[in-house]
Specification:
This protein is α/β, with parallel strands linked by helices. The chain has one domain (3-267). Helix content is 31%, strand content 17%. The chain has helices at residues 3-29, 62-67, 82-87, 154-162, 174-185, 213-225, 245-260, and strands at residues 48-52, 73-78, 94-97, 117-121, 136-141, 146-147, 152-153, 167-168, 191-194, 229-233, 240-244, 265-267. Strands 8-5-4-3-2-1-9-12 form an eight-stranded parallel sheet. Helix 1 (3-29) packs across helix 7. The protein is globular and about 50 Å long.
Length: 283
């Protein structure tokens, strides 16, 4: 069994375990819904999208991101990158969150300017983002998973529970939803990727700036026990890095999207296993 197929089997088990909680969260969040992601739709986008994930090399890109004109660039940050960006003087336009775990809730408990909008999935815990000072826009994750117990597609179940007819297409992680938002909703003509390492060199700096070492340690432990942590070379071929089945799956998804939208997605991450030339670095 390959590293990717092992990850996919774990993902199927996770869906089976979590699906009840996701549906319950969607129903519990329904009264909170005031705005939908589709309200942010543009027929023609004028700004370049900047998609910031929480990879450990993000700190090397801070000056470059700061140099981007905000008149021509629109920044979407994943939840785990928010505090690090704010601490370094970068205020994103949007923050996106889809994680239904308790551990992610406090990543949004930062001193955030009111102009920053939160993009929130209906399946998050009902406490997530409750004190967000700015506007919150809700979405469901598009899904190709058919729930045999309910006799319903999972995305349809979440729509019915939450009354949110707004979808973003996932690729397994939260930054993939950010890409769906920038290309599919904001019609960004180009998207720059930062913090998309899909790998690490120091387990104490799994996330940017070494934030949430507790989560990093637990994530690496679970993947190690499953036998899906392994070494490889980065995209330059010069650096030894570590990756795991989950990150490899996400990198594969991005590789497919870069092939699907040639010239639209540009990799700006300095240390990564996903290069900008379309070459696959894994099997």
């Amino acid at each position: 069994m390959t590293q990717l197929s092992t990850h996919e089997e774990r993902e199927r088990r996770s869906i089976q375990i979590q699906k009840g909680a996701w549906s319950a969260n969607a129903a519990a969040n329904a009264p909170r819904v005031r705005r939908l992601v589709q309200n942010l739709w543009l027929d023609e986008g004028k700004k370049t999208g900047v998609l910031v994930a929480a990879g450990p090399s993000l700190e090397q890109s801070i000056d470059e991101i700061k140099s981007l004109s905000r008149e021509t660039h629109e920044i979407v940050a994943v939840d785990m990158a928010l505090k690090f960006l704010l601490a370094n003087g970068i205020v994103p336009d949007y923050v996106i969150c889809a994680d239904a775990s308790d551990a992610i809730t406090d990543t949004l408990e930062a001193d955030v300017p009111k102009e920053v909008a939160l993009l929130l999935c209906v399946t998050v815990k009902p406490e997530t983002g409750k004190r967000w000072p700015g506007p919150t826009y809700w979405f469901c994750m598009a899904s190709n998973v058919f729930d045999g117990d309910l006799g319903e597609w999972m995305q349809r179940d979440h729509l019915i529970a939450s009354k949110v007819p707004s979808y973003l297409v996932p690729g397994g992680n939260v930054s993939s939803l950010g890409l769906s938002f920038l290309i599919g909703v904001r019609a960004a003509p180009k998207v720059l990727l930062y913090g998309h390492d899909f790998c690490w060199t120091d387990e104490h700096r799994f996330y940017c700036g070494g934030v949430r070492r507790d989560l990093a340690k637990e994530r690496i432990r679970l993947e190690s026990e499953a036998g899906t942590v392994f070494p490889m070379k980065d995209a330059s071929g010069q650096r030894d890095v570590w990756t795991n089945g989950s990150l490899l799956q996400f990198a594969r998804w991005y590789h497919e999207r870069m092939s699907e939208f040639p010239g639209v997605i540009e990799q700006r991450t300095p240390v990564t296993i996903l290069n900008d030339g379309g070459q696959r670095l894994w099997t």
